[in-house]
Amino acid sequence: MYDHLVSFKFKQKLDAEKEQALIETLLSFKNLIPGIVEITAGVNVTEEVDNIQGYTLGLRVTFENQEALQQYGPHPAHQQFVQSLAGLVDNVIVIDYPIK
Fold this sequence. Notes:
Blueprint: E1 2-10, H1 16-32, E2 36-43, E3 55-63, H2 66-72, H3 76-84, E4 89-98
Antiparallel strand pairs: 1-3, 1-4, 2-3
Subunit structure: Homodimer.
Protein name: Stress-response A/B barrel domain-containing protein
């Protein structure tokens, strides 16, 4: 299995409704994109405010295997989400690693 971690930094603070809509879209991937074992997403609530660096939304997706991870990026549901972020995102950090 593989984990895919994403941290989103937005150009402006999003209101709670927009954050919730993004989270719901991300969570819907489980039913739309093959190979997803588990998915979680949420607003960053860490008390380590010195370490946030503006990253306010997080995503973790566990995939069955590396092939499923590779097919996730170009999947139409993922691409539609990426396009919906146009003009909103300042930066994104992605980390992928195998789970043993």
